[in-house]
Design brief:
mainly alpha; 11 helices
Length: 398
């Protein structure tokens, strides 16, 4: 699953984590200011970023682009020397490109969040003072439009590239399995595992990986903002006064939902795995029946299909209470960030701009902490596919 596409996967992923930590440490221990040695304006790293699309080509951003490219080149060069995997241009440079686009998407969200304050405060000022210049509204709307145009364009490019990335991963797995087909073809459902499971595994791994990295980068970008904004919300319902109230409110709520859904959905991965087994057995008998008159007899098919029906009915039952729990949590989640702000709103400590900004930042941080909640159904499917492919590969390991 991994060694067909990534160079020496175990060491590759450990080295990736190590290199990521090294770069984060260097960046936040002064590296973001090193651009001054290359001619960037003095103090560019601490300069306030403009509220608009021009922030994406400000000196601070340009220095990060250069840093990211050089760091990726060093990492790719290292693995070019120590590995001869034919897919590593896609697995290394392709992964880096996707990683960069995820980071940029988070920065687009930060830019939009910064735009909330002047836009909504302008609206509040006009409503309070009996009106204002309509052209100011149009100008602020265009600021958002320019940011959105950049974000949407890059998102489409990333989606196009990611589709090719996933297909290359599937191709690598397909070539690996077909090269060992003589040893694998006797396994039940071998054709399905090579044709379907490889495609689904690559797609789901990419989706979950992208969402995980996005959640981590969102936390890195928005958590400091939430710490700063917590000073406007010193009191939260039930608890009362609390330092860093919004941060704690996001963590506790997400942790509660994660544990709840993990407990409620604990049986689902095994049921999904069993579902694929009984489906494969039924499909295999039907395929044999196409070429052999003595196979796929009604009694045999009835018995095999009864197993399919039994497993599906069990799945329906367990998914029913899982979906009920997830839906109720989702509905409460919609109201949660507003309820947290009620004491500060009632005390008149927030403006309309701050309410929208806090709601945006709080929502981003809360969603990042809720990664497992939002991805749990997909994780269940991935665990099922992984179990099937792992059993498949165990023949080669032996």
């Amino acid at each position: 699953m991994f060694k067909s596409f990534f160079p020496k996967p175990k060491w590759f992923f450990w080295s990736l984590i190590f290199w990521f930590i090294v770069n984060i440490a260097l960046w936040y221990s002064g590296g973001k200011e090193w651009g001054e040695f290359l001619g960037f304006p003095k103090g560019y790293a601490d300069a306030e970023l403009p509220v608009g699309v021009s922030r994406f080509w400000s000196p601070a951003f340009l220095w990060f682009y250069l840093w990211f490219f050089v760091a990726t080149a060093f990492f790719a060069g290292f693995w070019r020397v120590f590995s001869d995997n034919r897919w590593q241009r896609w697995s290394v440079w392709g992964s880096a490109f996707i990683l960069f686009n995820i980071w940029f998407g988070v920065q687009v969200s930060v830019a939009v969040n910064a735009w909330y304050v002047p836009f909504w405060d302008l609206i509040q000022s006009m409503l309070t003072n009996g009106g204002g210049n309509i052209m100011d509204l149009y100008k602020e709307t265009m600021v958002f439009l320019y940011i959105a145009m950049v974000g949407v364009t890059l998102a489409v490019i990333n989606a196009f590239f990611t589709s090719h990335y996933v297909f290359r991963w599937r191709t690598a797995m397909n070539e690996y399995y077909t090269a060992n087909w003589d040893q694998l073809r006797h396994i039940e459902g071998a054709s399905q595992r090579v044709q379907e499971d490889t495609m689904r595994f690559a797609t789901i791994m990419e989706d979950l990986g992208v969402e995980l990295v996005k959640a981590m980068m969102t936390l890195i970008a928005f958590l400091p903002l939430l710490f700063q904004l917590s000073k406007y919300v010193p009191v939260i319902p039930i608890i009362g006064e609390l330092n860093h109230s919004l941060v704690w409110a996001a963590i506790v709520w997400a942790l509660f939902g994660t544990i709840l859904l993990m407990v409620v959905g604990i049986k689902l991965p095994g049921l999904q795995f069993n579902n694929q087994k009984v489906e494969a057995a039924y499909r295999k008998e039907l395929i044999y029946g196409e070429d052999h008159a003595d196979r796929a007899q009604p009694a045999t098919l009835k018995e095999l299909f009864s197993r399919v029906r039994k497993n599906y009915f069990r799945l329906y039952f367990h998914y029913a209470y899982f979906n009920l729990t997830a839906t109720w949590y989702g509905q409460l989640d919609v109201l949660y960030n507003l309820v947290v702000l009620f004491p500060s709103i009632a005390a008149g400590k927030l403006t309309l701009g701050l309410i929208n900004q806090i709601g945006g930042v709080f929502g981003k941080v809360r969603d990042s902490f809720q990664y497992l909640i939002n991805s749990w159904k997909t994780i269940i499917e991935l665990l099922s596919i992984h179990k099937r492919l792992k059993a498949f590969e165990s023949i080669l390991d032996k």
